[in-house]
Amino acid sequence: MSDIIADLLRLSEDPNADPRSRRRQTMNRLVDSLLAMADSQFGPEDAQNRHSIIHLTTIIRDMTGRIADADDATFSAIVREAAMLIRSLERRKADAARFTVH
After folding, report:
1. How far is it, in rounded angstroms, from Cα 70 to Cα 23?
2. Model-level pTM?
3. What are phi and psi of 99, to 5 degrees?
4. Cβ distance 95 to 13 under 8 Å?
5. For 20, how many CA atoms within 13 A lie in the half-sphere containing its CB?
6. What are the mean pLDDT values of the chain's consecutive 10-residue runs (102 residues total)?
7. How far apart, in whole angstroms, are the C-alpha atoms of residue 21 and residue 25?
8. Gap between the Cα atoms of 85 and 61, Å rounded
């Protein structure tokens, strides 16, 4: 598991935080991670992909409160999908690096 996903899934450093706060922290970490990946992985030739990731993060950021209030199954599904997206982006970056001449 990548460091980004491990950090994303680490709900809170404060064991006394309420579940909604931990979920909100998780979604904020997700948004931050995706924005960082969009900035670092996509160049001018990938403008559409970068725009798609930024658009997705905007939607997630706008819905953070509702996601934090979602039932356990829905919240888990959202986090699982986010983890798969991050893994996919990491694989894409690793594949591109194999073909890059240094």
Report:
1. 10
2. 0.73
3. -100, 5
4. no
5. 5
6. 61 69 86 84 76 88 92 88 83 70 56
7. 6
8. 16
